[in-house]
Amino acid sequence: MDASDSPAADAPDAAGSxxxxxxxxxxxxxxxxxxxxxxxxxxxxxxxxxxxAEQLLRLTRRLHRIQSRQLEPIGITPAQFRLLRxxxxxxxxxxxxxxxxxxxxxxxxxxxxxxxxxxxxxxxxAPDPDSRRVVRIRIxxxxxxxxxxxxxxxxxxxxxxLAPLTAEQREVLGGLLSxxxxxxxERHC
Length: 189
Hints:
The chain is mainly α. Helix content is about 55%, strand content about 5%. Strands 1-2 form a two-stranded antiparallel sheet. β1 and β2 form a beta hairpin. α1 packs across α2 (about 50-70) and α2 (about 50-70) crosses α6 (about 140-160).
């Protein structure tokens, strides 16, 4: 775990102060405004995009930890949850290659996830009626039941991470995130 993953990274300094103002104009700075917090402010001033990227990375890590904690009692990982949702989103059972492309991962990663989900009875491999070489992935009744449970866990994780925001702030954040996601160039494996 790196420093940005620790709960202390999101907390005020040891003195309980969130004040990040610079020290006095004369003489060296001392007290809570000196040290890492002051360096953080200087870095933000010099590289605002880099700091924004770092904040997004920290938020992503935090969301992943919260979601993992919510999913653990159900016995599924966030990656397996994502694959299960993806399989369920298809009208017809997808091929492994379809899943890899949709998830933007290498096919071997999908194989590992499907193996785990199949072992738990949430998906099953099925032969393609048109081609003996193609294997389709079908969600089972157990997989559908798991998805219903997971949706509640996902909502709880989202509520925990978004709790500090007002409804208006959440709406603005949703718009900003949509602009970032929709504006991303397509990447091919």
